Amino acid sequence: MQPKTILVSFIATAILLSAALRADVSTPAIFGDHMVLQRDLANPVWGWADPGEKVSVSMNGQKHSATADRNGDWKVKLKPLPAGGPHTLIIKGKNTLSYADVLVGEVWICSGQSNMAWALKQSYDGDLLAITANNPKIRLISVPRVGTQKPQKDFKGQWERSSPEVAAEFSAVGYRFGLQLQQALGVPIGLIDNAWGGSAADAWIRRDVLAADTRYDALLEKWKETESNIEQKVANFESGLKKWNKDGQPKGKKPSDPRNALTGNQRPANIYNGVLNPTIGYGIKGVIWYQGESNASRAYQYRHLFPLMIQNWRDDWGQGNFPFYYVQLANYREEVSEPQEADWPELREAQTMTMSKLPHTGQAVIIDVGEGRDIHPRDKHTVANRLVRWALAKDYGIEVPYQSPTFKSMSIKGKKAILEFDNVGKGLRSFDTREPVGFAIAGHDKTFIWAKARLVDEYTVEVWSDDIANPAAVRYAWANNPDCNLFSSDGLPATPFRTDDWPGVTIDKAYR
Description:
Layout: H1 3-21, E1 36-38, E2 44-48, E3 54-59, E4 62-67, E5 73-77, E6 84-92, E7 96-112, H2 114-117, H3 126-131, E8 135-142, E9 160-162, H4 164-169, H5 172-185, E10 189-193, H6 207-211, H7 217-228, H8 230-244, H9 260-263, H10 270-276, E11 286-290, H11 299-317, E12 324-327, H12 343-357, E13 361-364, H13 380-395, E14 406-413, E15 416-422, E16 428-430, E17 439-442, E18 448-450, E19 452-457, E20 460-464, E21 473-476, E22 486-488, E23 497-498
Parallel strand pairs: 1-7, 7-10, 7-11, 8-10, 11-12, 12-13
Antiparallel strand pairs: 2-5, 3-4, 3-6, 6-7, 8-9, 14-15, 15-20, 16-22, 17-18, 17-21, 19-20, 21-23
């Protein structure tokens, strides 16, 4: 081959390699066909390109441009749009992306652990609801479960129109919440499901946020030890596995693979990095959340951990104090014959406290919805309705009852405790029986016994026991699975509470 021919061949190859190495303009999976953008919001649109490449983004007569930075990142903000569509979002650089059938409406994150992840087809009457799920104004996307300490920029997923097949696999609480909103508001609804069954709240928070608070030193130190000893633990696991499966005959309990802890749903920041991070910044209206079961043994810690998580999300999202509505734990486990201490009521108490610590938060009480033998109540319809009441009342200006009755104050008159309640709506009522049940009372010895109760008026309950001469404290629905029947006349169950602040069973595990 002649030198000139070799040179021409070399140049041609170099050009082809250069073209191959050039990065196409791209976006994360949260952007795509059939997506919903949040109405009346300056929606961020972002992605990647070659460093220094100019990128233009246009939709519905708008056109915005940005230049990719040295890392190849670019970002623009669309001007706020009213509800409607469909539109086409066009992104141009050295290549062109065209996302069709884009709607503008209300976007909500559906998050938490298994009770939020629970599929529509698994819930009561979910099969019937799925049959009617051909609704092009509801769009759904799910984020896969990836646990990692490295912040992820993208995920595998796509927006889909609601259909019987798609809705059946989606979060039951999330879909029912979105359906109620769509029917009430008449606008497109976008739902992002990122729930992970069994997840601890710790895993949904940035690790540096936890590290900045000395209250979590012991928690993080425990995980550092787990991480540093993983090689030896793996060796022990493999040795134990051989013994367990000696001669091909498994015997006893199979050893747990310690590597699962590194990519699982308990390790601090794992879910924040692997699941939440790729969507942070996407235009949303708010979040609905159903979690707490995995943190019940550390209920006192949850008093601070849960608000910390919410604030972490809000800070990083950059959309101010967006609404965050959550489900209080349902009734679960065996009923008890006498009042006793337990972790689930302490976790419920921590959840209730969050409303007084952060603005624009709301709690859906479902103490009447649970199942004693199943941590996954199948009645997701009631759960979704209790959540959507908060959104309709607080965010969309629709007058509906939304907050469960809450304890306000207690006074003692002789042998009786007089309890006053807020948020009673049209008044308090006892369900099924004339007398309210679920109350326990104690004297100064801190020993609780079941109490008698009577409705005095629409917002007052009188509680007493013939065996307590000088009452000091009252508790209501203070059990894992309480027998309780106090409601508002609007059908919302009274929030479990206690009037005392005596140390509970999880206080010693508060920061471990």
